[in-house]
UniProtKB/TrEMBL annotation:
This is HAD family hydrolase. It comes from the Bacteria. Its cofactor is Mg(2+). InterPro entries: HAD-like_hydrolase (IPR051400), HAD-like_sf (IPR036412), HAD-SF_hydro_IA (IPR006439), HAD_sf (IPR023214). It comes from Tractidigestivibacter scatoligenes.
Length: 259
């Protein structure tokens, strides 16, 4: 069983055992490091804000997400094609070698543009103080890369290594509910007594709902809900870190339970 926070009197009046967070575009604004990598390799892109570049990359991330869902690491070619398609949306053509280099910088050197906001730190403080067993992380991705991001963000202040569950290390990937079940079982709880916070509908919301875990859709990009949601609905939806902080500060958040 993984390491968990000490149970004390202040946590005795909550229905929530663990608050799990996604990493990318949840714990930090992923648009900043992505835009940093693009500009570092390709120069300024006319008319392209950080958010616009990131949103374009997400539109072309289907094969990347599909690879993680299939429990395999995306290929260099898949990452390069996403970079080429992203830049093409802004009328910029780059060759394969440039796309590979931009992806390398994004993966290996963009940490300088990655930071944890004071609002997100406050969210983590509140979750550590109120959740009976503390804070956890459930994320798709490569184990080493996700660990580097958590180190850059200083997440060890709130989350112990035993409460971090990355798809490559576990052998399961969101939206498979088995990953959520695995994390809960490892920490000695059940999905209905936990809450998940994530930004991606297809992996975070769908996966948490399938596992029976109440979830917050952290919709910082203002995306529309899928028309074919098929009955999937987050427990809460917020559009900013400030809204997330307000939600976590409400008593209704801590009294909610599916058990």
């Amino acid at each position: 069983m993984g390491q968990v926070a000490r149970h004390d009197g202040a946590k005795a009046h909550t229905c929530v055992d663990v608050v799990f967070f996604d990493i990318d575009d949840t714990l930090y604004d992923q648009a900043r490091p992505f835009a940093y990598a693009v500009r570092r390799v390709c120069g300024e892109i006319p008319g392209a804000t950080d958010a616009a570049l990131y949103d374009a990359s997400r539109r072309h991330s289907g094969p990347i997400f599909a690879a993680f869902s299939a429990r395999r690491t995306p290929t260099t070619e898949e990452y390069a094609l996403r970079m080429q398609q992203t830049l093409a949306d802004f009328g910029v053509s780059i060759n394969h070698e440039t796309a590979v280099e931009a992806q390398r910088v994004y993966a290996d050197e963009s940490g300088v543009a990655m930071s944890l906001s004071s609002a997100m730190a406050s969210c983590l403080d509140a979750c550590r103080a109120r959740a009976r067993l503390g804070v956890g992380v459930i994320s798709n991705g490569r184990e080493e890369l996700q660990a580097e991001k958590l180190e850059i963000l200083g997440i060890s202040q709130w989350v112990s290594p035993g409460a971090v569950f990355v798809s490559q290390a576990v052998g399961l990937a969101k939206p498979d509910p088995a990953l959520f079940d695995y994390a809960c079982d490892h920490l000695g709880t059940t999905p209905g007594r936990c809450i998940y916070v994530g930004d991606a509908w297809d992996t975070d919301v769908v996966g948490a709902c399938a596992a029976g875990m109440p979830c917050v859709w952290f919709n910082r990009r203002g995306r529309m809900r899928p028309q074919d949601a098929r009955g999937v609905s987050p427990t809460w939806e917020v559009g900013s870190e400030e809204e997330l902080r307000a939600l976590i500060g409400s008593e209704s958040f801590w009294r909610f339970s599916h058990t």
